[in-house]
Amino acid sequence: MRNARKFTAMAAGLAVASLALAACSSGDAGDNESGGTGSSDEVEVFTWWASGSEKLGLDALVGVFDTQNPDVEFINGAVAGGAGSAAKDLLQSRLQANDPPDTFQAHAGAELTDYINAGQVDDVSDLYDEFGLRDTFPADLVERLTVDGKIYSIPSNIHRANVVWANTQLLTDSGLDPAAKYETIDDWFVALDAVKEKTGRTPLSLATTWTQVNLLETILLADLGAEGYNGLWDGSTDWASSEVTDALADFEKLISYTNTDRDGLDWPDATQQVIDGNAAFNVMGDWAVAAFEEAGKKAPADYVYMPVPGTDGVFDFLADSFTLPVGAPHPEGAKAWLKTVGSLEGQVAFNKAKGSIPARNDAKPEDFSEYQQSAMTSFGQDTIVSSLAHGAAAPVAWSNAISDATSKFTTGGGDLAGFQADLVAAAEANAS
Q1: How many CA atoms lie less than 13 Å away from 204 in the CB half-sphere?
Q2: What is the predicted pLDDT for the residue at 213?
Q3: CATH code that applies to domain 20-158+318-373
Q4: What distance, in Å, lies between the first and last C-alpha atoms of the chain?
Q5: What percent of the chain has pLDDT over 90?
Q6: Cα dihedral sign for 96, 99, 101, 103?
Q7: What is the pLDDT of residues 11-26, one digit of tens each?
Q8: Which of 6, 103, 171, 335 gives 20 to 30 Å between its CA and that of 343?
């Protein structure tokens, strides 16, 4: 089903063969340099899935794990915080103190670069062979996860970041056709104006900084196209160009349609505004579908979804994945968890609850929701690019610099020219 997938280049991704590994990096998963007992009687799993649909997905995965490993105690190391910011800070402290969890969640892609360079995660390539994952994960996905011939994580899912969610009734009240697809950002502006003028409701709900960066990346993608967007990460697109200026101007205009309390909210709050009919549109990854379903909403009667205007035919990719940390106190327990993560049973249970789609290519589409079936089709035929906000496009330091620049701009701390200058400086400081 997915053999027709067209991946575009992602120089910032994990397929960069020249990535240098730290001298302390270990050889493979069969020889974990942990000094741990090797005991499989427990496993501490560190995630940021602490609430909502994310916790539902984790709970479903744990249920499969418990069935497959009845003698292994699951220890939930979840830390609350949107997009994992709080969890990542705590994780870094633990890794630096040589106190790693047995496995931790990370976004597949460039986000893993720092852990690899620091020698903090083991090569799990042998587990791909042991678990038969090379035969069930798409070959181009495995290639994307490979660094200098080694693989450092096992993905549990595939998510799409460039999705618009909209309230059907509020669109109708605004004189809009809920089934309409907006080909360009300018077309979308017309719809946003209609919501504002005819209902007085929030045209576009938004939350804290990482959701703003998620919005920003989709606008860059819409205005620059897939090739131009990828060029931001490999140096072929100039951050100082007029094309980027135009995209940032569109982002600035979109911010003007959003709720003023955005910085005090996280993504579930912004999504809930659409569910409740207090906002018309929201840009969020497809984990949001689980929130609509949990609220008992049905598409298209209650809500509709579409690619961000200007990005139809492009799949803005991210994946949650799990690692085997160097120094894991229970590496055998960690390997048991990784086996469940990669298993068909684990991926079906997890993704049905979380709203994402399996990384495996042997899952049956009919086992999933209408939205997820559409995502499977898109992932199989669209051009794939890597998400900035979710760790796939740029290393952590670069992503953090963009987040800081975005927060400064959206909170009124700078003008458009200053925002672009900050983004240029971030690229100059971090691009390899």
Answers
A1: 23
A2: 98
A3: 3.40.190.10
A4: 35
A5: 77
A6: positive
A7: 333 333 333 333 333 3
A8: 6
